[in-house]
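Supplementary Text 2. Reproducibility record for the structural model of the 93-residue chain.

All settings were left at their defaults, and a single model was retained for analysis rather than an ensemble. We include the record here because the model underlies the residue-level annotations in Supplementary Table 4.
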Amino acid sequence: MQDYFGGDILNTVATLPNSETVSHYLNVVDGETIDLTREQFPEGTTFTKPATKTGRYASTREYCLSFESTRRRYEKLRSRVASYLEGSTQPLG
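Retained model, structure tokens:
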């Protein structure tokens, strides 16, 4: 999302109906929140106010990509999206 539309990645904490908490990230582009994965959470989930989560990094994106497993998943998805947008027949999934 951010690769193509810019904006900022923000973090929120999702509290599930069973009280379990999960870190969740979303995009804000031109002041509009775009959350392409919110539907993964069950009805009744509440979210904290989105905010940056940078740790010792300059941005939330840099913070997220500092984790090797996250970086690998990102690179795989980025490659698939680029291929798809270029007209490749490779499925995204």
